[in-house]
Amino acid sequence: MELIPASGGVFEVTVNGKLLYSKKDTGRFPKSNDIIQQMEELQ
Protein backbone atom coordinates (compact mmCIF):
# COMPACT_ATOMS: atom_id res chain seq x y z
CA MET A 1 0.00 0.00 0.00
CA GLU A 2 1.25 3.46 -0.84
CA LEU A 3 -0.20 6.85 0.07
CA ILE A 4 0.37 9.39 -2.66
CA PRO A 5 -0.15 12.89 -1.27
CA ALA A 6 -1.97 15.31 -3.53
CA SER A 7 -4.00 18.48 -3.30
CA GLY A 8 -7.56 19.35 -4.12
CA GLY A 9 -9.34 16.97 -1.72
CA VAL A 10 -9.41 14.01 -4.12
CA PHE A 11 -9.47 10.61 -2.40
CA GLU A 12 -9.04 7.63 -4.70
CA VAL A 13 -8.21 3.98 -4.16
CA THR A 14 -6.37 2.13 -6.92
CA VAL A 15 -5.04 -1.42 -7.06
CA ASN A 16 -2.51 -2.33 -9.75
CA GLY A 17 -3.52 0.75 -11.72
CA LYS A 18 -7.26 -0.03 -11.55
CA LEU A 19 -9.44 2.64 -9.93
CA LEU A 20 -11.62 1.02 -7.26
CA TYR A 21 -13.07 4.11 -5.64
CA SER A 22 -13.12 7.85 -6.23
CA LYS A 23 -14.46 10.33 -3.69
CA LYS A 24 -14.45 12.88 -6.49
CA ASP A 25 -17.00 10.77 -8.41
CA THR A 26 -19.22 9.83 -5.43
CA GLY A 27 -18.88 12.88 -3.19
CA ARG A 28 -18.33 10.75 -0.07
CA PHE A 29 -15.67 8.63 1.60
CA PRO A 30 -16.06 4.87 1.17
CA LYS A 31 -16.83 2.44 3.96
CA SER A 32 -13.88 0.15 4.72
CA ASN A 33 -15.90 -2.95 3.83
CA ASP A 34 -16.69 -1.55 0.38
CA ILE A 35 -13.01 -1.26 -0.49
CA ILE A 36 -12.09 -4.65 1.01
CA GLN A 37 -14.87 -6.36 -0.94
CA GLN A 38 -13.75 -4.80 -4.22
CA MET A 39 -10.14 -5.83 -3.55
CA GLU A 40 -11.21 -9.42 -2.87
CA GLU A 41 -13.19 -9.49 -6.13
CA LEU A 42 -9.99 -8.69 -8.04
CA GLN A 43 -8.41 -11.99 -6.97
TrEMBL record:
It comes from the Bacteria. Coiled coil: none annotated. Pfam families: Rdx. InterPro entries: Selenoprotein_Rdx-typ, Thioredoxin-like_sf. Keywords: Redox-active center. Gene3D superfamilies: Glutaredoxin. This is SelT/SelW/SelH family protein. It comes from Peribacillus deserti.
